[in-house]
User: Fold these one by one.
Assistant:
Number 1:
Amino acid sequence: MNLATHYKCDDCHATFSLDKPALLCEACGGLLEIGYDLGPADPRRITDRAAARRDLGLWRWSDLLPLPRGAEPLYLGEGDTPLMPTRRLGRHVGLPNLLIKNDTLMPTGSFKDRGFSVAVGFARALDVKQAFTYSSGNAGASFAAYAARAGIEATVLVEDVANESKIAAISLSGARVLRLRYRSSLEIFAGVSALSEAGFYCFVNFINPVRHEGMKTYAYEICEALGWRAPDVMVHPVGTGGGLYGAWKGFRELRELGLIDRLPKMVGVQPAASAPLVRAFAEGKPVAGRHGDANKTVAQSIAGDAPIQGGSRVLRAVYESGGRVVAVDDNDLFEAMRLLGEEGVLAEPSAAASTAALLRARAQGWVSESDTVVSVVTGGALKQPSALAQAARPPAGTVQADPAELLRIFREGLV
Ligand SMILES: *Cc1c(COP(=O)(O)O)cnc(C)c1O
Ligand SMILES: [Zn+2]
């Protein structure tokens, strides 16, 4: 059973068949969305089937994902990451019902795998042979890994904020890496759009209508874990907004199916140094312009001076849900990395943004003590080693591997 039925254009509402790997609307160039026929669906059947297929990770929700009938899921172990209560962090920020969704445990170390598993799996089923994306690192590493497994020839255009470890990860999976020179994210979008319109299959969020379908599985996993209830607030770091918007689509589908009766507030987080969506939200605007400098923050994965398509989809999700977009500075990111570390979760700075935002959330008044808050930790620390070293406390000292000296230190402390 697969309930996906068509692509539909956001702007002119034209619909298209899912049997082709489409990007933008053929009629008007608008963004495409995948539509489902949820009316006749039996929600209990969907949840029972999902519960019985835990060995399939996020593909256990395949009824609600686009995959042509008979096609194999492209599965590397993604999905079903832990939703964990905290030991101290929740009390520290005044939110005893705080839960951490630990997506650092994904196959390539970031939540990007939710989207690429589904989008590359869909593309393989429709016989796509070559494709590209642009990336600050994690998207490229994820795309390269799934494309390698799918036998799709991959090119990754990397932004200048991408660090050497991430670039090496991309190329280790066999993708062609091209470093980009540009002055603003807007130049990247112009290039990516031109390639897409010329028929090169593109995996950039939103231009590709399937990636955020994978991100919907956040909503399914979280609501299932909460006994078919939505959290009050979901906090997610935002670059293009694919993660936040995908989760929002998932929550709305669950409500349409009657599995949950209300939706969470969606809260996006950006680095203060480049926060176009924060500014647009503060001004109540539906689209965001340019703001800031992506090189002035340690949060590489969410640094960009403009969001793709003006961030219109993510802003819509934030407004409709009663959420917001908030800014965090680098010191708060390092503090959040240490607090998460003490919960056993090692986050890269961008991934700690959803926790950094909580440091001031009670004081800013956008959460209350009784709220169930899900903070998504989107990517692991090891792919940005320099920031890991910056956030960590230095070693306590250097000691001789000598029994007498070690005994003295353990009994009396360092002198
Ligand atoms: C890509 C990324 C984000 C932002 O995701 P978008 O879908 O572009 O908003 C957040 N955190 C990490 C670790 C990422 O790699
Ligand atoms: Zn259209």
Number 2:
Amino acid sequence: MQRDNYKNERDKYFKEIENLNHPNETLVKTHCSYCAMQCGMNLRVNTKTNKIIGVEPRYDWPVTLGKMCPKGVTAYQQVNHKDRLLKPLIRDDQSLKGTKNGFREASWDEAYELIVKRFTDLQKNYGKDSVSVYSGVSMTNEKCYLTGKFARVALQTRYIDYNGRFCMASAAGGLNRSLGIDRGSTIPWTDVHETDCIFLAGSNTADCHPTMMFRVWGIQERGGYVIVADPRETPVARRADLHLDLKPGTDLALANGIVNLLIQNGYADEEFVKNHTNGFEETKELVKEFTPEYTSEITGVAPEKIIRAAELYGKAPNAIVMFARGIEQQIKGVDNVSAYTNMALVTGKIGRAKSGVATITGQGNGQGGREHGQKADALPGYRKIANPDHVKYVSKVWGIEPEEMPKEGVSAFEMFGLMEQKTIRALYLLCSNPAVSAPDQNYVREQMKNLDFMVCVDFFLSESAEFADVVLPTTTWAEDEGTTTNVEGRIIKINRAQMPLGESKPDWQIQIEIAERLGRGKYFSHLKTSKDVFNELRVASKGGTADYYGVTWEKIDKQDGVFWPCKDESDPGTPHLFLDKKFNHPDGKAKILALPDRPSAEVPDEKYPLHLTTGRVVYHYLSGNQTRRIQFLRDMCPEPFVEVHPETAEKYSIEHEEYVRLYTRRGEATYKVKITEAIRKDTVFVPYHWGHEKSINLLTIGALDPYSRMPEFKTCAAQIEKMKTRAVQ
Ligand SMILES: Nc1nc2c(c(=O)[nH]1)N[C@H]1C(S)=C(S)[C@@H](COP(=O)(O)OP(=O)(O)OC[C@H]3O[C@@H](n4cnc5c(=O)[nH]c(N)nc54)[C@H](O)[C@@H]3O)O[C@H]1N2
Ligand SMILES: Nc1nc2c(c(=O)[nH]1)N[C@H]1C(S)=C(S)[C@@H](COP(=O)(O)OP(=O)(O)OC[C@H]3O[C@@H](n4cnc5c(=O)[nH]c(N)nc54)[C@H](O)[C@@H]3O)O[C@H]1N2
Ligand code: SF4
Ligand SMILES: [Mo]
């Protein structure tokens, strides 16, 4: 396999590039704009036009070794796409709010003037907190960091939160609680194929992180085992050694059932448990009840499969537990993360190479973006607003008095609640498309429509921009430079391949220009480049849990990325966490947590007899605002569908490819049926990458995890109905 001789491959590759004789072309080393795999790619640039004209994979990138998925190979087509926003837009016609019409082009000056006037007026009348910021983590660390500072120092509002609340918040909560630190992976990905058993819970790995699949299959090639827990037989489940086909929302019982067997069958590592953990006895007591039979009753997974899972994981000399949104986007998300982490803590399979725990982070900068202060309760370096020492430190870096630091805000979905109450009256939205991606769309769209004033910053006019009063055109990832932190916790460099198209500007520059016009320029004007912002971030994170102080752009280039924590310039970074068996709780011990099971927010009943679960397809990305514009991806997957088991289809007299109506207590929508045995009989699945009347989030529930405030996208109760007349599509 290529991975074994990657150094040779890399040398050969560089020779090939040197021998290239394309007088009009140059290659710019960078990474994909989409998921947290952050695959290495070279953008091909025409040196006469200075425009990006194509892409090739980077064989020299150690994580992905020249692999890319269909989204990655077409990502460059966004940059010079005909739909790019090239000038600011101002809404002239309020009656057309909620549609893409009613805008006119404007100059930056006019747009800025309007924004500053409206924000200032609203803040004068209703207080600083009447203006809010809602952000996203497709942005670089530099932009994410500056967005947090922009909210607190320029707008002086407490209300900032971001789309990681829908994505990584439960993983962060669970890992922090169990291990005392939230770096998504305790090991580098280059370890993955060398382990003996991988347990993948709620991860559609082949569709969502396709370029890690060679490492998953690598485990099997070496004689190891792959176990998958998912209500659907996804591509990775199909080829796995064991598929635990649980009912949506029952992971807590499944994890407890497996941990019980690990303990009962002698797989616990007593030395490790004694020296490095707390909570074993309480957990042992609690999970006793979760016998294979009882666990099977709750989860619907056959008892033999549960027994086999514990045996395969327990026997493996090295093993990795990985999870993704399937277990996290539940009201039990934080508990699920800790419950699966218990598997590693009880058996001591953590804190060494080839063994550990990882959440498979979603967005490109899903890791870095959650560390540097875009979250309602967080400050850079994973510091907390609730901690006066943390506030003191960051205030000093920012040059404000600690008393001036706004207090904690509320989570992303709860911000819509404050819009309803008119506590929040204005919104600065960037890098997110909640008019597609938030749950309970009928409610969310109404709140966006009722705002007094809304700004949306994007490079394509999104469904959310339709509610805006001003739309600001920003750059794509290829027109700016900065860093992201990938799925492993490795900080990497994104390079500029083309100058900004039209009048578009990078987010950080827009924020600095608005800050200056708000009279807050003295806190921002020293930041002239994205590198200046990074250097300030280094200082702001210094001494925090996510310590980036020792990371420099030069070190990133030299070392193929730097894993945090990295405390000073001589520190190479930390690929493996806990090699010294010291966890990040004050006593150095990890927590094995006793977690009683509880029901999901909504369970099927007579009226709504099916579980509805939602997720992704390989061809589209998140709200689809980017990938739905790429012809190849649209051709491959033009519209959403509902997956239905053949027996369920028969029960409702539904045929393959016919349109059906799907209902929940919150809304309804029409989908084409895909009949497949790869789903449970009691469950239907719809991907969520489409907006307007096709959005499955018209149907999902806004119930939140009590700790992470993350919505339960992965289960609610639904009804399916044959349509009386053929749908006009
Ligand atoms: N192609 C593609 N790739 C992506 C993205 C994308 O939009 N498209 N998005 C990126 C982002 S931001 C993210 S967060 C990740 C998401 O990556 P994943 O979490 O892997 O993707 P999902 O499809 O949301 O859900 C994963 C699986 O959870 C299963 N599931 C549903 N309910 C349950 C349950 O109750 N328990 C368990 N155990 N499983 C359940 C679903 O059947 C699904 O197969 O992907 C990233 N990569
Ligand atoms: N039903 C259901 N809903 C879900 C999920 C699910 O599994 N099921 N998953 C949830 C998850 S995990 C996630 S991550 C969310 C994601 O949902 P969103 O936050 O809506 O994600 P995107 O579609 O990436 O939205 C990003 C928007 O910003 C733009 N953009 C990209 N890069 C930049 C940039 O650098 N600057 C600016 N200003 N704009 C940029 C894009 O064009 C796009 O319009 O969806 C959540 N919603
Ligand atoms: S796997 Fe993720 S990072 Fe890699 S090419 Fe596909 S979308 Fe891009
Ligand atoms: Mo995500």
